[in-house]
Amino acid sequence: RLGEPFEWFRAVGYHGATLIGLGRYREGLAELDRVLARAQAIGQPSLIAASHLMRGSSLLISGDWPQVVLHLQHTVDAAEHTGEMLLLTMAWSGIGWARSFLGDHAGATAARERGRAMATALGGSFLLGDWYDAGDAEMALNAGRVDEALDRAVKVAARSAAAGLLFSQGIAERVHGIILADRGEQEAADRHLATSLRLFEEGGMALQAARTRVERAFIERRRGRTDAATRLFDHARRQFEKAGCAYALAEADTQWGIAI
């Protein structure tokens, strides 16, 4: 019944996560704040763990990496007491993904390996597993393991395209495009980045679309196409501003300044 705590948590939590995915960041966070506050009021460790997991996993969409680590570590702390392996699997995998963007590549690998080992113990398939497979491609790219990143991106894109999984396919296509651009394969790079942007826009995933635009802006600027680069970056910046994603906006601004 909807009035029971578990059903309320699922309805409100998934609603909040969906709002964040659609770029309605402030509204989504407000819903997830309600979920976490109620879990803490009830005081049940499994609800607290799941509430932090919902918030941390949702913030993977927007790229608020420090908050991802914070909330997913809370998930780990609570779930270790309850022995909920699925929550631990997802939390460790998400922590690894976020740490990669914070420059802690050794910590990222260690966390993801813990999550992967737990997934194997559960049978190898779990909720949002395709997200973390796409995250593996980003993690490899961030760490400079370019050949591994390309291999993972190609495989994830193919699997996700066959299954209609737009989020993971969009990330994989973005990784593929970035690598090809760095290798000077301009037309192929543009195709993959255009596919990434199309998938995110078709799925209404405004914040991931903005992240793809930022990457395209960097590529266009390296090519000497300053006007195109500025248009792409400004579009992405407006998306982050409208959503209220302060961390993603500051991260993009910092990278844009460093890249000059």
Characterize the structure shown.
With 260 residues, the protein is mostly helical. Helices cover 85% and strands 0% of the residues. Helix 1 (5-21) packs antiparallel against helix 2 (25-42), helix 2 runs antiparallel to helix 3 and helix 9 runs antiparallel to helix 10 (186-202). The longest helix has 18 residues, at 25-42. The mean pLDDT is 94.
Cα separation of the termini = 56 Å
Low-confidence parts? none
The assigned structural class equals mainly alpha
Oligomer: single chain
State the shape: globular
Structure, briefly:
The protein is mostly helical and 260 residues long. It is built from 13 helices and no strands.
What is the fold's blueprint, element by element?
Layout (H helix, E strand, L loop, with lengths): L4 H17 L3 H18 L2 H18 L2 H18 L2 H17 L3 H17 L7 H14 L3 H18 L2 H17 L3 H17 L3 H17 L3 H18 L2 H14 L1
Helix pairs in contact: 1-2, 1-3, 2-3, 3-4, 3-5, 4-5, 5-6, 5-7, 7-8, 7-9, 8-9, 9-10, 9-11, 10-11, 11-12
Characteristic key phrases:
mainly alpha, single chain, 85% helix, 260 residues
